[in-house]
Amino acid sequence: MKTFRIGGVAEKIIERSDMPPAKLKKVLGRETVAVVGYGVQGRGQSLNMRDNGVRVLIGLRKGGASWRLALNDGWKPGTTLFDIPEAVRRGTVIQYLLSDAGQKEQWPVIRENLKEGDALYFSHGFSIAYRDQTGVVAPPNVDVILVAPKGSGTTVRRHFLEGRGINASFAVHQDCTGRARERAIALGIAIGSGFLFETTFEREVFSDLTGERGVLMGAIYGLWLAQYEVLRERGHSPSEAFNETVEEATQSLYPLIGENGMDWMYANCSTTAQRGALDWFERFRDAARPVFEDLYGKVKDGTETRRVLEANSRPTYRQDLERELKEVRESEMWRIGALVRSLRPERQGAKKGKTTATGKAGKAGKAGKKRR
Ligand SMILES: NC(=O)c1ccc[n+]([C@@H]2O[C@H](COP(=O)([O-])OP(=O)(O)OC[C@H]3O[C@@H](n4cnc5c(N)ncnc54)[C@H](OP(=O)(O)O)[C@@H]3O)[C@@H](O)[C@H]2O)c1
After folding, report:
1. Is the pLDDT assigned to residue 294 strictly greater than 80?
2. pTM for the complete prediction?
3. 328-361 as b/e, with b when 16 or more CB fall inside 10 Å?
């Protein structure tokens, strides 16, 4: 455990070394973890726990896409794969990893099958923090805990297989057994977290909804589009506009910023780029700041979650989504994007099974392709 103080805030960080395998076994050895839901989080977390020696079973509605995927991954009906009520009855930790709208719908089934002393686990503060909208109010005789990986479930699994980790936050909403905190920490390590930092259900969901609508996906796409459109209108070709906007960012600069930080990036680009970026970032911050204020307000007052629950519970949800994604996919920017991606040498190598520039056969390319 490490404690540090930055910006006047003292924080404790829990690392894997705080929960070595013997301690993990002591805390989780008698637990049966029922993972309800097999989206990217349910899949990543359950497979990592299984590989870490935790007793895991899966709870799903029969016949859905997730059921078929779970069968493919080796979960066995009647042994490690059950319908939702049976999985909840068999579990002592219930990892509630349906979609957030699905959690609202299935809550009566979960509620009915929870037993005294169970731990009800979430990877998002949504259902509990907005219980006035979801109706998810846990009975007083269970622990209510959260471990929220700060990354896609795909990366939770991929990093685990690569010996790396995804950082996660953890929280205790209700501690009925006196073990809620150690259960949350042990589960956080068992699902493959890099390190854990503490939060509350409310703070997790406010920051998460702001982040994904903002810099992680919504804002960044908005910024990319604005730049791409200006470049195109000023006569630049699609490949020039795309390379200068997305490809260079994702393939070169963002991984370097991730490795070394922003000051390093500024110090290690051309002096021309450095001067310009340092002169312009405040204008972009000032332009974006009111939008972030508006966004945070709408997250906090429940406008955003009401919209999510309404849109994602519609019977036409999947068709509506596919229509929106098709528009993105078929836009000029992402048509050139697909072309640019396909022309990356490593993908060419994978496609043709050719020897790559590094002299290795197209295996790395193939594995890369499979992982995506
Ligand atoms: N996506 C991420 O990377 C990520 C990151 C951090 C936290 N989280 C949180 O983790 C939780 C799970 O998210 P996710 O992205 O893994 O899953 P998801 O894609 O949102 O949900 C998929 C799962 O929910 C099931 N489901 C949906 N509606 C259902 C219903 N009405 N009845 C029964 N099953 C239903 C699906 O089963 P079928 O296949 O049968 O439809 C599938 O197993 C959420 O709380 C999310 O906010 C997600």
Report:
1. yes
2. 0.91
3. eeeeebbebbeebbeeeebbebbeeeeebeeeee
